[in-house]
Amino acid sequence: MGDRLGGSADDYVAGILRGDRRSIARAISAVENETATGRAILRNIQRHLGRAQLIGITGAPGAGKSTLVSALIGEFLGRGRSVGVVAVDPSSPFSGGAILGDRIRMERHSLAERTFIRSLATRGHSGGLSRAVVAVVDVLDAAGFDLIIVETVGVGQSEVEIAEIADTRIVVCPPGLGDDVQAIKAGILEIADILVVSKADLPLADKTELDLRFMLSVRDPSARQPAIVRVSSVASIGITELADSIDARRDLGVGKRGIGSRARMRRLFAQEAANLLRRRMTSIESPALDALCDAVACGDIDHEQASLQAMRLVMEGCR
Fold this sequence. Notes:
Elements: H1 9-17, H2 21-32, H3 36-45, E1 53-59, H4 65-78, E2 83-89, H5 101-105, E3 115-121, H6 133-142, E4 147-151, E5 168-173, H7 180-184, E6 194-197, H8 205-217, E7 227-230, H9 239-251, H10 261-283, H11 287-297, H12 303-315
């Protein structure tokens, strides 16, 4: 089985396992575009997964996520680790491709032997992540990278989707959040394993840290309490401490892919099933589905019953 780039799934898998950058890049393109070769690659690398430490970094646009990722790449390379990065960018309104702003900020690391940086477009997918992220992470995991960092596009509370795939979740909070901390505490702050106060050399960083600590103090004491780390990527403040916090989770056995994998896989199955159902239900011609829509409009059936019937119709291939 080959693809338009001229490689077979077996060729790509062999290249991935030996860390060949060209094979990795082409395999990622195949899985991102959901080709038959891409699907075969994903099947064939499953037995080689579970070795990478998967870090998710999220936070509002402008929080300094990309600069932080660049600093972390340098820190972990200095510790002798290999690092893969998946940077989820907004889609270009013209081509649908990634705008590549995040990768430009990481350019100084892009050619390092022990790094691989890939930007993916959201392509309209909500939740701050591209649908292809999990597949691309699997390719990088099979390629043997010690750490894989996923940086989300930065769209607010909906970015809780990062919790579904990352073992260590980092939420970046820039100075000056103020009352906004309280406003978003039920969203992305709730998923954090580590809270990062970015741009820590700015005057409002002290207040932001105090706000975060107050927010944690009024939470249920039995809830997981994230660490708080102040960093300034530009001034090289706190990067070592943040990397130490990430490594501490790995050393405790909670920063490695595979922990709680069945529960995570069920959530991923549910997410992908919803995506597949949405694509098929909105793209196929079906008199039976049209009749079901008319029945809902007339009040002959409620939305829940109609949704169940619609799922059955799609699974049966519609009529």
